[in-house]
Amino acid sequence: MSLTYKRVLLKLSGEMLMGDTGYGISAEILERVAELVKPLHALGCEIGVVIGGGNIFRGITGTKSGFDRVTGDQMGMLATVINALALRDAFNSVGIPASVATSFEISGITPAFNAKAVREKLSKGEIVIFGGGTGSPFFTTDSAGALRAAEINANLYIKATKVDGIFDKDPAKYPNAIKYDTVSYTECLNKNLQVMDSTAFSLCRDNSIPIIVCNLFKENNIINAISGKTVGTLVKGE
User: Fold this and answer.
1) By the 8 A CB rule, do 1 and 223 touch?
2) Pairwise pLDDT comparison (92 vs 3), residue with the higher score
3) CA distance 179 to 28
4) H-helix or E-strand containing 160?
5) What pLDDT, in 10s, does the model give residues 80-100?
6) Where are the domains of the chain?
7) Quick count: other Cβ atoms within 10 Å of Cβ 173?
């Protein structure tokens, strides 16, 4: 199988890792994610992963409990580091070399992100998982994904979700929601299609990085995505 996209940034939500537990990390889901990524790695795809932290703590919701927004976002960043470490070990357990880089150094645990060092690791077949978001408050992990995608010279951003793509409205609430097969960055911004935030869309547009939004757990979706087949929704230029 030939790869249309050689180096990809895979964005995973923290909520995905908790499975049906309602909180925390499901060992079953970790194993499933690792097994889904394994065939991509075997094909020679170079993979960077950005993980969210919503299964542990989401910064913006912390403000409803009285936390300062900056403090809440910092707590959320630390939650993503916990998830990144768990993913690293899940990949290692199925024979995939993987490491973690974070937006800030945690002495004795993770090094700070360095684009050149990460690109070298990717070129040698190591998966690198990015924790800590962008390192700054008020930015989502979708934006962190777009930033890291640009920094590692990824030629595809895959946002792996539990739905089949981008819809004109929430398909969980509206059975008549219409799915887009292809949509432009500008349309996403103008129509306020909130599958990703505007900063993430803008970063990908400005760096000509196509985005595929698809269901991670649908059979062969990720393999088909990197092979250039129609999967989920493709976001690209005009």
Assistant:
1) yes
2) 92
3) 30
4) strand 156-161
5) 999 999 999 999 999 999 999
6) 7-236
7) 7
What is the dotted CATH code of the domain comprising 7-236? 3.40.1160.10
Which CA distances in Å does 18 have to 27, 73, 121, 125, 180? 9, 20, 28, 28, 28
Q: Provide long-range contacts, Cβ within 8 A and 24+ apart, for 102-108.
A: 102/130, 102/131, 102/132, 103/77, 103/130, 103/131, 103/132, 103/133, 103/134, 103/135, 103/144, 104/77, 104/132, 104/135, 106/81
Evaluate whether 94 touches 35 at the Cβ level (below 8 Å): yes
Q: Which two tokens stand for residue 61?
A: 């919701």
**Model confidence pLDDT, tens digit, residues 186-221:** 999 998 887 899 999 999 999 999 999 999 999 899
Q: How many CB atoms lie within 10 A of CB 23?
A: 9
Cα 182 to Cα 198: distance, rounded to the nearest angstrom: 17
Q: Cα-flanking dihedrals φ and ψ of residue 114, to 5°?
A: -135, 115
